[in-house]
Amino acid sequence: MDLILWRHAEACEPKEGQDDLDRALTGKGERQARRMAEWLGRQLPAAARVLVSPARRTLQTAATLDRKARTAAELGPDGSVQDLLAAVRWPNAREPVVVVGHQPILGLTAAYVLTGESQPWPLRKGALIWLRSRRRADGRDVVLHAAISPDLL
Question: What's 32's domain CATH number?
Answer without folding.
Answer: 3.40.50.1240
